[in-house]
Design a protein that fits this description.
The protein has 500 residues and is an alpha+beta fold. The protein has helices at 17-29, 46-50, 69-78, 95-103, 113-120, 122-129, 146-157, 183-198, 255-270, 303-310, 314-322, 402-415, 425-433, 435-439, 446-450, 457-478, 489-499, and strands at residues 10-13, 33-39, 53-58, 83-85, 107-108, 161-169, 172-177, 203-207, 213-221, 227-239, 242-248, 276-284, 290-296, 339-346, 348-349, 355-356, 363-365, 372-376, 391-399, 417-419. Helix 2 links the parallel strand 2 (33-39) and strand 3 (53-58). The chain is globular. The protein binds ligand MV4.
Length: 500
């Protein structure tokens, strides 16, 4: 069908961990050879072993390995690589990387540098989408020029307002101003913070939407003018802008609203001639009004929930589109099958302010069975490197209904055996059992409103009790049936061994 096709025979994945493995699996299924690049810290990682070829690109710090464009381009040239998949994070939204690859005759699997640049600047993004029927939060047209203008706008849209940095995104560089008397200081601080953080002091003002939901729409576009929406994901369970639980579809959208938001997302994508996979983020307020926030120009961490409900492989689609093929479906062909939930398993201690708890995975046994998918990048015995994001795995469940997906998730979390590090699984188990989550009535304040470390004590105590019983039993066997003395040091060490 398509001319100008460039077939991809060898693919380099410019990433690590679970996403590198996930991308390579799809490539292999398509008969494409895979190349891994890895840092010294990742030498023994499963993604390196999985690849057909693997090249070490430097020491552990990303700035000396995964982020060095010249090293990656050189590997492409040396190994005659046809295309690069950037995964998420690292260089996935770096226009200079696409340009360098294109110069070297290598396909970048993603949008154009132009689309990345526009969507990377929150003001430019709003400017690009306006007038295309995409609802925007009321606020300033462009960057704020001085206190007088800020005050005029704030009085028109009414307080509270939110000051955002143009170069921000993902929650960085935001400041709420509750009332008139706080505007001057708020503005000054926002500008100074934006200057320090991004080297760009441009800020804009929006009406503050209280208690919003975070709903994002997955889109997919080819280079022949076809753009479809692959429905939404709800990601309102977040902690400090870090998503913890995601689900698809949202528990609250009506078919009409889903269509409206889907079409708005397509309009956003079209405004920058988008190609490939992208995500359009919206806020949904209590009255079910939705507003465009930003567009992420990459494959996202939470893409598996979309794959589970659509039956599509987003990575295969990305590769096909990059080869110049047309999307193999139209909007009318797409429908939602069942419900999917993802929880992110981080090596963080929820009982201790989610402090990273890196160390060795002394036990690591992921759950299995119907409707369970685990995207991970570690194996038992491996040490989680301190140099990167502490995500161990993504646990995804699918069911015919939301209730079934939740029940499966509870079962799967209970079956997940990890020791050696604390993880966010206990926290996710708490979320699954919470009435607000189960009823679907939750927003972006879920963690603030419903979580304190104490709520985990029940979960944890049960686990501790079981561990203590096992330890006591083992000890009794070893001591030939002698009763354990209360406070004996051997008892305590058996306890520690079990827990850590
Ligand atoms: C907002 C908002 C309320 N009102 N904008 C945070 C990340 C960025 N994508 C947009 N964010 C927000 N923008 C207006 N006008 C509240 C948030 C927000 C938020 C959004 C999605 C998910 C979690 C959030 C947590 C705090 C604040």
């Amino acid at each position: 069908m398509a001319n100008n096709n460039r077939s991809i025979k060898k693919l380099l994945v410019a990433n690590r961990g679970e996403i590198a493995l996930r991308v390579m699996r799809s490539a292999r299924e398509m008969g494409i050879k895979t190349v891994a690049v890895y840092s010294e810290a990742d030498r023994t990682a499963p993604f390196v072993r999985f690849a057909d070829e693997a090249v070490c690109i430097g020491p552990a710090p990303s700035k000396e390995s995964y982020l060095v464009i010249e090293k990656l381009v050189k590997v492409c040239t040396d190994l005659k690589v046809d295309a690069v998949h950037p995964g998420y994070g690292f260089l996935s939204e770096n226009g200079a990387f696409c340009t360098a690859l294109e110069k070297a005759g290598v396909i970048f699997i993603g949008p154009t540098p132009h689309a990345m640049k526009v969507m990377g600047d929150k003001l430019a993004a709003k400017e690009a989408v306006k007038g295309n029927g995409v609802p925007l939060v009321p606020g300033t047209e462009g960057a704020v020029n001085g206190l007088d203008e800020a005050m005029t706008v704030a009085k028109t849209i009414t307080f509270p307002i939110l000051i955002k940095a143009a170069a921000g995104g993902g929650g960085k560089g935001m400041r709420i101003v509750e009332k008139e008397s706080e505007l001057k200081e708020g503005l000054e601080r926002a500008i100074s913070e934006a200057t320090n953080a991004f080297g760009d002091g441009s800020v804009f003002i929006e009406k503050y939407v209280a208690g919003p939901r975070h709903i994002e729409v997955q889109i997919m576009a080819d280079t022949h003018g076809n753009t479809c929406y692959l429905f939404e994901r709800e990601c309102s369970v977040q902690r400090r802008h870090q998503k913890v639980v995601e689900e698809a579809p949202s528990a609250v959208l009506t078919p009409e609203l889903r269509k409206q938001m889907g079409e708005a997302a397509v309009a956003v994508a079209r405004s920058v001639d988008y190609r490939g996979a992208g995500t359009v983020e919206f806020l949904l307020d209590e009255r079910m009004n939705f507003y465009f926030m930003e567009m992420n120009t990459r494959l996202q961490v939470e893409h598996p929930v979309t794959e589970m409900i659509t039956g599509l492989d987003l990575v295969k689609l990305q590769i096909r589109v990059a080869e110049g093929e047309e999307l193999p479906f139209t909007q009318e062909d797409l429908s939602i099958n069942g419900h999917a939930i993802e929880v992110r398993v981080y090596a963080e201690d929820p009982a201790n302010n989610f402090l990273p708890d890196i160390g060795k995975l002394t036990t690591y046994r992921p759950p299995q069975g119907p409707g369970v998918r685990v995207d991970d990048g570690f194996e038992e015995g491996m040490t989680i490197p301190i140099h990167y994001d502490p995500m161990i795995a993504k646990l995804i469940t699918h069911g015919a209904t939301r209730e079934e997906a939740i029940g499966r998730m509870e079962r799967a979390i209970d079956d997940y055996a990890i020791s050696g590090v604390e993880t966010t699984l206990t926290f996710c188990r708490y979320v699954m059992g919470h009435e607000s989550f189960r009823s679907g009535k939750y927003d972006t304040h879920f963690v603030r409103d419903h979580f304190t470390p104490e709520v985990l004590e029940g979960v944890d105590n049960e686990e501790r009790m079981a561990a203590a019983l096992v330890a006591a039993h083992l000890l009794q066997e070893r001591t030939g049936g002698q009763p354990i003395k209360p406070g004996s040091s051997s008892g305590a060490s058996a306890w520690k061994l079990k827990r850590r």
